[in-house]
Amino acid sequence: LVWLLVLSLVWLGPALGGEEEDGEGVVEEEEKEEEVLSDELKEEGGVLVLHEHNFARALSEHRLLLVEFYAPWCGHCQRLAPAFAQAAATLRNESSLARLGKVDATAQAALANEFGITSYPTLKLFRDGNRTHPLAYTGQMDAKGIVRWMRRRAGPSATLLQDADAAAAFISSQDLVVVGFFKDLGGEAAQAFYEVAGEMVDVPFGVAEAAELFQAYGLSADTVCLFKKVRVWQGFGGGGPSWDPPSPHGPPPWQFDEGRTDFPVDPVRGLDTAELTQLLRVHSLELVMEFSNETSDQIFSAKIPHHMLLFLNKSSSAQLTLRDGFRVAAGTFRGKVLFVVVDVTGYGADVLPFFGLTPADAPTLRLVKMENNRKYRMDQDTFSDTAIRTFVQAVLDGKVKPHLMSAEPPEDWDTRPVKVLVGKTFEQVAFDETKNVFVKFYAPWCSHCQAMAAAWEELGERYKDHEDIVIAELDAMANELENITIKGFPTLHYFPAGPGRKMVEYKSARDVETFSKFLENGGTLPEEPPVVSAVPPPAPPKARDTHPPR
C-alpha cells in the first residue's frame, strides 16, 4: 500500500503529495487549558520543542537550526517524526553545530503566519539567528537525507583540492564526484558552483584553482567536471544487475557511460545554477536505470520530461537480451528521455496495474510523459534499437496518440444510484447534453476518498430518480481520459447540461447538504464562484489496431 501511494506521485498520474494542506483531516480535540510558556528550551527525543516564547532564544543559541512545522493530526508528520528524531541524535553525536527543532503550527498560529506555513510538514533552515529569510528544506524526508543536507550546510559545500595528489584521491574516493575548476574562487561562477554543491547533498563536490590542476586535467578555462568510475555491464545475476571494472583482457561487452563529462563555464553567461544542477542530475544517472528501491529517488528527482520503460521478466534469458537494443537507443535521447528497465517479477511488480499490465504482458514498452502522465504504447513486433528510436522520436514530435486505459464497465453500472463510469463510457455520460452530471474521480487507496464515500452514496440515493441529474464516479487509477487530467484525490467535476462541453470544478465542503445546494443551484455556490473550463472533444479514432494488447 505504501508503494502504491509513492507511485501515484510519479508515473501513475494524480498526486497525494508529500504534505497535507492546512485543514485536511483535522479532528476535533477537547480544549486544553492554555499552558504558561517560558523561553526555556525543552527537548523531545533530542528535538527542540519550540513556540513563540522560546523561538528567538533558539535562534540566538544555535547557528544552524532546522525547524519542522507540523500538525499533530498530519499523517506525513507522524511518519516523519522518528526519522527527524534519529537525524537529531546523529547530528548531536557528531558534535555538529546543526540542531533540529519542531513547532506545532496548529497551536503556534503566530509563528505559522510569520513563516507562511500552509501545509505540513514544512521544514525551514534558520542560519545565524536570521528569522527573516529562512531556507526551504530541499533534501529527502528521511534520517539519512536530513543528516546529509545539514552536514552540507554546516561545513564547506565543496572540498578544496590543493594539489594533484589530493585531486586524484578525491576523484577515486567515490563512484561519482563533481569538481569545479575556477581561476578565481571568489568569482561569480565559483559562488554559483558552491550554491549548487549546497543543494546536491548526495554527491561529493570538490573545487580547485591551482594552475597545476588545470594543466593536469587538460583545462584552460573555468570548467565543471563530472567524474564517474567506468564500469562494465555483465548482465543480470541472481540478485540484480552485475557490474565489474573494465577488463584489461580484450574489449568489454559495453561500457557504462563516459568516465568524465565536462561542462565549460560560458565566459559571457557565467554559470547558471538551475542549468548546472539539471546537467549534473542527468549525467550522474546511468544511461539505462534499473527500477529499484535504491534508484527510485534518482529516477524521479532527475526531472527528465519523458521516461521510456522496458518491462521484462529477469528470469527469462530471452527477454534479457532485449536490453541491448534498448541501451543503444538510449544514448540518442540523453537528457530528454530516461530509459528504465522494470522487472515485472521483482520490485516493479506493484507498478504494473497503473499501466494496465500483468507479468504475462512482458516484454513490453511504454513511454510516459511526466508533465501529464500520458502513456504511449509501442508496437510490440520489434524491440530493435532502430524501432525504439523511431517510436520515441515520433512521440516527442507529437505524432503518436496516448494509450488510454479503461476498465470494463460493470453490468449494472447505469442502474446503481451512483453510476460507475470507465474510460470508454465517460464521454457518452458526462457530456450528455440532456443531463447535469456530477462525477467523483477517486483512487481506491485514497483515505479522503474513503472518508467521503458514504456521503457520495447518499447523494446518489437522493438524486437516483431525478430527471436530469446524474451522480457518478470514476476510478482514476484504472481509467484515463484524453483531455482531462486529475491531479489529486478526490476530484469532483460537474458537467452541466447543454452544448459547449463545459466542466465546473467543485472545491467546497464534502457533505451531502452542500453537494445538494450546489446541484440545486445549477452547479454554483454563492460563496465560491466556480472555475469553468472548456474540454475539447477527443481526436477522431485511427485505424483499428490489429495487434493484440500487451
Sequence-ordered SSE layout with sheet pairings:
Layout: H1 2-7, E1 20-21, E2 42-44, E3 47-50, H2 55-61, E4 64-70, H3 75-93, E5 98-104, H4 109-114, E6 119-120, E7 122-127, E8 135-136, H5 143-154, E9 159-160, H6 164-172, E10 176-181, H7 188-199, E11 205-208, H8 211-216, E12 223-228, E13 232-237, E14 240-244, E15 260-264, H9 273-284, E16 288-290, H10 296-301, E17 306-312, H11 317-320, H12 323-330, E18 337-343, E19 364-369, E20 374-377, H13 385-396, E21 419-421, H14 423-430, E22 436-442, H15 447-463, E23 469-475, E24 491-495, E25 502-506, H16 512-520, E26 531-534
Parallel strand pairs: 3-5, 4-5, 9-11, 10-11, 16-18, 17-18, 21-23, 22-23
Antiparallel strand pairs: 1-6, 2-3, 4-7, 7-8, 10-12, 12-15, 13-14, 17-19, 19-20, 22-24, 24-25, 25-26
Helix pairs in contact: 3-5, 7-9, 12-13
Protein name: protein disulfide-isomerase
Subcellular location: Endoplasmic reticulum lumen
Pfam families: Thioredoxin, Thioredoxin_6
